[in-house]
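Section: Multi-chain targets

For targets with more than one molecule, the full set of components is provided together so that the structure can be written out for the assembly as a whole rather than chain by chain. Components appear in the order listed by the source. The example entry contains two components.
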Amino acid sequence: MPVAQETEVWQKQTNELKKFLAIGDAKAFRSTFLELHNWEQAQFFLSLDQTERLALYNTLTTKEVGDLFDDIDDDQVQIPDFLSEMEPSYAAEMLTEMYTDNAVDILEHLDKATVQRLLARMPHKTAAEMRTLLHYGDETAGAIMTTEYITIVAKQTVASAMAALRAEADEAELIYYVYVLDNDHHLAGIISLRDLIVNDQAAMINDIMNERVISVQVTDDQEAVAQTIRDYNFLAIPVTDPSNHLLGIITVDDVIDVIDDEAAADYSGLAGVDVEAKLESPLKSALKRLPWLITLLFLGMSTASLISHYENLVSEASVLAVFISLITGTAGNAGTQSLAVAVRRLAFKNEQTSLLRTLVVELITGLMIGVVTGLTITVVVGLWKHTFVLGFVIGLAMCCAIIVANLAGSFIPSLMERLGFDPAVASGPFISTLSDLTSVLIYFSIAQYFMPFFINK
Amino acid sequence: MPVAQETEVWQKQTNELKKFLAIGDAKAFRSTFLELHNWEQAQFFLSLDQTERLALYNTLTTKEVGDLFDDIDDDQVQIPDFLSEMEPSYAAEMLTEMYTDNAVDILEHLDKATVQRLLARMPHKTAAEMRTLLHYGDETAGAIMTTEYITIVAKQTVASAMAALRAEADEAELIYYVYVLDNDHHLAGIISLRDLIVNDQAAMINDIMNERVISVQVTDDQEAVAQTIRDYNFLAIPVTDPSNHLLGIITVDDVIDVIDDEAAADYSGLAGVDVEAKLESPLKSALKRLPWLITLLFLGMSTASLISHYENLVSEASVLAVFISLITGTAGNAGTQSLAVAVRRLAFKNEQTSLLRTLVVELITGLMIGVVTGLTITVVVGLWKHTFVLGFVIGLAMCCAIIVANLAGSFIPSLMERLGFDPAVASGPFISTLSDLTSVLIYFSIAQYFMPFFINK
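Its structure, encoded as tokens over all components, is:
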């Protein structure tokens, strides 16, 4: 069956489910609804109005609603509204039933008073666990890990480990890796369910477990965690503190969200706009894009006032105006390319390249690009305007402007990172607007110097 | 343990392993090497020179080398060299031992004659399977699926299914989902290992299996497959033909690679350069970036020649030159934003928005942005140059240029997609260079019309 959402069947089923809710036929609703995958349940839920949602809360158990909330995207802006329309004790119970990492994602989007109110209504142990998770820094391993994993001890047979696994399976988010702990809750080994299945049931865990456990630290950046899971092709990775106590695990589905979010952030940064995949209202789009545009407009004003400074030069040789946009445009393009490469390289933390080396490489690259582009334009302009002096001025200016734009494009993201910002906030539009300024300065300085040679055009 | 590669321990171990290879101590080499995770083995392998690699082939079995090749990134350019330095029969045997999808990824990067030579040396069944997989279109579900999955029939108990699973586990890439087939190889249901474990061993598969199987078609785009796995949080998804015969499965690790590749392609497109995470030599970088830059340079020349056409206007009112870069720059920025949004929206196939609706939304967005930005600059220029006529000319030109750039930014990627190209090839630099041309045309047309009113500045 293809993805349900697209089909007419889905449309029909949705309408039917809504009808059941409206007429209060709980039995019919439950029998159809609980057949759906959790993600489909979530999609259905998101299509309801408030009256329908209230009817749904009454028809389903907190566990069943928790299951669908596990599959609602955590950047869904309506979540706080959903929680506030539930009875507080119902909301607390539902959050308790959810996987801890997902519940914590939701709590992070609520105001502090509401969080306290909800935690107060949870079982003591769950509330304590969530409080701990809420304390981990944003975008760290701690913030995305879950505490629902299966642990066993090493001195037992596969058969007894399987029994332990069966007993705990209901609570765990992932049962395909089992973590082996010693007496002090240190992570001593790991064994996959695959190994438990294929090995002799009488074999001892400590003989077959993998002791070379790859783990991440609770304070590690989520991007580094994603990189490790991707490299090793794991389904999950354990998270430990510096003394190797097991604190939680991070599953591959959360890592996919991290990869997605980071890619979207890099992409949005390059474009100078927070890109959303959904079609938004024009007003919302405009409000999102205007701040950057207006900021850059004022940066652009300094370029304009610089040109204004050279207005006399332009009125003497109006041909200079002809090439302003060509030089600023080409340098801006080169700067954007170098920016994109720099941002992407910074995203891959395991490539440890020194800033100096990057700058040297980018300088030489810029030099090569500048010389080739400069020579090309020298010839083209020389032939077109029948003066190779002018061609040379344009070519030299373009070459210098490209080198400067290239350096800015690669240096600024590194600088941002060193100052503790996300390098992706150095946007493409920012670099090209900045490069307009330097390009114009370079262009008119060179033109002024060579003025005497081509004024008699 | 943190990721091995970064630690000194790793460096020491690598050196030790190389020493074992050099002195030909196969036993010592094997006992250390086979303790490593496959990905680490792959990293070690990639650090070897040819002599060392040849020694390694002699020391390890084809299965062991196949395991590490499973974890070499398929865009690793050296792979064809590795295969050509192996004995052909060794290479064929190694590919046979690998997971089919990974082996096919490698074959896709070899020339046809080599592929035929290798297939001829494989067992008949494997070669036939690989030939089929090689025929699926690039970037489709068929191209990334594997044929190593576990199937059972419905009319048996959990206990007998578990026995079947144990027997097949060694060959399968993923054993955590088991696919239930009917007599005609139709996909009739799916059951997770989790369900097999927690259910009563005497339960019948057809009572507990999930019959609402979410699957993808073999011709589906890989991006749509990735979206489905991500939405449903699956570890794998079955691939079927239109008659619902099971052809293969796609696992979550391959989906992560797809998400990565697509994100990198969108990102590279926006920047107008094929972005690689690794630091490349300046020459290589320059050669990669120059083609676009030179192409755009010639597009930029048409802007220059358009300005040249208006040179008399500029020499009469040199103040016009002051605002060229401000108008082209701002319109270019707006166009880049709208381009980024359009490309990203096209990437999410499940959002079915008509082109017309997108354009209308983008037109209204452009209008709002244009009016706000235009009014701002009218006031600023009016105050600065003490002439609100000039301010109005700049403001009006900027407003129109932004609207046009916005439309181009959202229309061109859609056009590309309709013509069968990847919308991401419409790069940011291309849109801003194109928008330079239209902006200059709009600017000077408006300026010429209003010329009489501000020439007496």
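Chain A has three domains: 4-144, 150-252, 282-454.
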